[in-house]
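Working notes for the structural subgroup meeting. M.R. asked for a predicted model of this chain before we commit to crystallization trials. I am recording the input and output together here so anyone reviewing the notebook later can reproduce the run.

Input as submitted:
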Amino acid sequence: MLDQMSSVFFDEANELLDNLENQLLVLEDNPTDSETISAVFRAMHTIKGSSAMFGFDVVSKFTHRIESVYDMVRNGQAPVTKNLISLTLTARDHIRDLLSDPNNPDFLAQSQQILSDFDDFSSEYKSPSDSESEAQTITPARTENSEEESPAKEEKTYRIKFRPSPNIMQNGTRVELLIKELVEFGTATVVPFFNNLPELSKLDPEQCYFSWDIILTTSKSENDIEDVFIFLDSDSSVKIEQTDIGFSGNKKLGEILLERKAMTQKDLDDILTKQKQIGQMLVDQKIVSSEEVASALAEQKHLKQIKEHSEKKEPSAPSTSAAPASQSIRVNSEKLDQLLDLVGEMVTFNARLNQISHDIKDPQLMQLSELCERLIHSLRDTSMDMRMLPIGTIFSKFRRLIRDLANSLGKDIELVTEGAETELDKTVIEKLNDPLIHLIRNSADHGIELPTVRIAQGKATKGLVKLIAKHTGAFVTITISDDGAGLNHQRIKEKAIEKGLISPTETLSDAEVAELIFRPGFSTAKQVSDVSGRGVGMDVVKRDIASLGGTVSVESEEGKGSSFILKIPLTLAIIEGMLVQIAGANYVIPLANITECIEFLPEDDRIEENALCSHITSRGQYIPCIQMRRFFNLTEPIPQEQKVVVVNDQNQKIGIVVDKVIGNHQTVIKPIGKLFKNVAGFSGSTIMGNGSVALILDIFKLIQVVNRKEQEDA
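Returned structure, recorded in token form:
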């Protein structure tokens, strides 16, 4: 249990640190945004509290000192400066180091240096009285004067039902500290319930028998209250409801119970006709529990006190209750991988079942097979959706990368992202991280010029790097572009000749010259720096993208900038495909790439007899095509009837001539093995219902064959 809770803590802490980095970068652009300042403070507060709860006292004390500085910022005592943002980003990285090894003496020495820098910052804005002693509380108590100096925040009243699990103390959670932290948020009335308390002889000191209702009036938000319970175990429950305090000082017990839906209006009317205490009557008739009555009476008293305290103020309008928050749970990624593997096996099993049902031609078996197929399709879609994540989960970290690169290179660079909501399989996103880092570093170092150079060229001082993602069928296209110097084709060619990659007499097009930058060890940097110049990176990009079944291409105009275009499949697991036959062998074409299927007869003169590539005319459009029999060097007789499957790659279409189109096929992608990794034309394989293997055609490679053939003919 402790290991499980520690794992949850580290996951939550890393997520908080990632969010903190994003909030700091937003705050740097909007230094007076009070919401972002509060978000940064809240993140620090949560990291501090959870670290202390799990025994990371070094992290807790370190974070507390930084939190105190942001409390000054939040109260208007200190401004948000570029220096403060830089210090906090450094502290954020250091917190991650401390979590990995809190007793490392090097890290502890760095802590002192970082805290000294924060002390230097805060000393400029502290009053003499503040400097005499450090605040020791989580949130300093406000005095009458401090309330007058800063505008008062609107207070709201919440009903909090806290029902801890009996085993909550066994995972290290101290329930009394949670209650205490809530009480410090404002004016609180705490109602404890101990109806489940057993006899003394049966009492287990490791069990929790209590539950609480807390009525809290505070200027804190509902998110702040939820943060108190952020590491609560799944068996415990917390329900937070906002209640109106406008004129609620006169609310009666029955009204409160009606509001809570503890009873009906008819129950209340029946009780009111009798001359007895309403609370006792409700309990006697088992309409409500004694706990609900005690909580409602406490709320009645609390609201009356709040009304009396604020009777000189204008009554506030009733607040609209917040929409219920979406519920989510954390699942280990290995379990999701295992789930998808099992779904893939079920898809293969279903294909086998379909094959047997069609061979036997049993109506009942065929009906069951169709039902099974529908259920597996639904299960497949659900499991795939569970693995899909917005690509913005990695986009956000590149803002920090660009900021640090700009500072180290002495450049002014802005990162613009589009399509962060575009979803990809989580495995694909994980493998995209390194290639995107290489490309962004390349754009910042080689692409964007120094401000003096940009001014001389009539450009804006600030360079622009764009990171754009969008869906294109079963693929996602990611473009990394910059408005920098662009590729110097002549210089690239000279460097390639110098390294022996090409011969001096070799003639290359601009596109082929641009492809040279993806060769291992190739670099045009005049000197090696911390950022680039060692020739390691672009070849890694191409290799990693190829391992995902994708492609990378480059477009550049000297003096205007460069664009690197990555085309990545949505998932590496299951796709919808079209099953076709060529010379008796089965092949799969990804369905998302198919535009149409056209009848083709050999007597048509649309395809030359012995040509690998030629052209057809479809719907008035001239389309290049490829004869797959000749592509595979097959010598079997050509059947009388053939089909042309028209596929597309963004704006380009080609025709693939096959013998037969069988139909849709749910395809579980399997690797074809290292032995065949260099065989052109295939991107993977799948297992058919009869146990045979069908190869998946690589549309990108086929289009490259057509393009190369057209260039040779030209």
